[in-house]
């Protein structure tokens, strides 16, 4: 069982509206999204594209529903653009998150990313050279120091189609960055999709993990994705991901690692699906019941 005093439970708005494919869930409003999060029993949320940019407005809408902001996606371009460009945007985003009470910002290196492109997700992924690895680590360490000085933590999101996708890349990343400035955002779904044992990765790096995405996977859809050379976004539309307890990922060992490690922070249900096919409230409730049953949260 997980300790409610240490582990908090959140959910991402991507199940209601997909910022990468705005036609998915375009009919779902911000108010509906956060109301259904609360109705399903979640107390934390990441930030989505439809969320108000005004701090006072956003706080009021969340406070009356008993929800707090726990993280926001941030795209870095440290190996393809001048560092200063990323830093400027990072400072603005961390200032916003801090004002909202969040302790974490989730960074993903989007230089040469194929996740949003119309190309097969298992083909043509960019591979960094040694100089780019150094550039990425140096830039992230700088950003991590900025976050730390604000009382926040930079967590890095390994992700399909990006320069940190494979097990070897995750390992090298963790070797290259400063462990006091840059932490891991562990994503069970992206591990499984990449063909990595999520239990192995989390078991190895749980002490350096400060944010967790719980995402289930449908293995048959992944197999079809490989066979038919789908893009990442095509796979999402077809149902690659789903909420914990609805797919093929065994979460019991993952929850066990979290419990035994004494992890403190958020675990967040993040399962991008087509809301016209997978009703967001229905699947949020399904995830909430499964996690309660397995963890006591």
TrEMBL record:
- UniProt KW keywords: Cobalt, Lyase, Manganese
Reactions the enzyme catalyzes:
scyllo-inosose = 3D-3,5/4-trihydroxycyclohexane-1,2-dione + H2O
Highest taxon, organism lineage: Bacteria
Record-annotated Xylose isomerase-like TIM barrel domain positions:
38-291
Which SUPFAM superfamilies is this protein grouped with? Answer: Xylose isomerase-like
Its UniProt pathway annotation is: Polyol metabolism; myo-inositol degradation into acetyl-CoA; acetyl-CoA from myo-inositol: step 2/7
Q: Which GO terms describe its molecular function?
A: manganese ion binding; myo-inosose-2 dehydratase activity
Q: For this entry, list what GO says about its biological process.
A: inositol catabolic process
Q: Which residues cross the membrane?
A: none
> Which EC numbers does the record give?
4.2.1.44
The prosthetic group or cofactor this protein requires is: glutathione; Co(2+); Mn(2+)
**Does the keyword Cell membrane belong to this entry?**
no
Q: What class of enzyme is it?
A: lyase
In this record, what's one Pfam family?
AP_endonuc_2
So which residues are the signal peptide here? none
Family, per entry: Belongs to the IolE/MocC family.
Record protein name field: Inosose dehydratase
Q: Which organism is it from?
A: Anaerostipes rhamnosivorans
Q: Which gene encodes it?
A: iolE
């Amino acid at each position: 069982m997980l300790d409610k005093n240490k582990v908090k439970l959140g959910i991402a708005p991507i199940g209601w509206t997909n910022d990468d494919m705005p036609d998915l869930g375009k009919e779902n409003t911000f108010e509906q999204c956060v109301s259904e999060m609360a109705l399903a029993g979640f107390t934390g949320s990441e930030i989505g594209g439809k969320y108000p940019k005004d701090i006072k407005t956003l706080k009021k809408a969340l406070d009356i529903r008993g929800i707090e902001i726990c993280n926001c996606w941030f795209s870095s371009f440290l190996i393809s653009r001048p560092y200063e460009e990323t830093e400027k945007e990072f400072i603005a985003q961390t200032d916003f998150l801090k004002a909202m009470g969040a302790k974490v910002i989730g960074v993903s290196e989007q230089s040469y990313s194929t996740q949003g492109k119309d190309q097969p997700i298992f083909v043509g992924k960019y591979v960094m050279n040694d100089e780019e690895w150094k550039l990425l680590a140096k830039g992230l360490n700088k950003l991590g120091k900025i976050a730390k000085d604000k009382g926040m933590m930079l967590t890095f999101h390994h992700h399909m189609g990006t320069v940190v996708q494979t097990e070897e890349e995750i390992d090298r990343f963790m070797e290259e960055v400063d462990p006091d400035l840059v932490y891991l955002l562990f994503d069970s779904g992206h591990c499984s999709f990449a063909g990595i044992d999520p239990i192995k990765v989390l078991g190895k790096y749980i002490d350096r993990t400060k944010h967790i995405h719980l995402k289930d996977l449908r293995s048959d859809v992944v197999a079809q994705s490989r066979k038919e050379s789908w893009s990442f976004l095509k796979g999402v539309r077809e149902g690659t991901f789903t909420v914990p307890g609805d797919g093929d990922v065994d979460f019991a060992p993952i929850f066990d690692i979290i419990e035994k490690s004494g992890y403190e922070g958020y675990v967040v249900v993040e399962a991008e699906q087509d809301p016209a096919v997978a009703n967001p409230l229905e699947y949020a409730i399904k995830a909430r019941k499964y996690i309660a049953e397995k963890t006591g949260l």
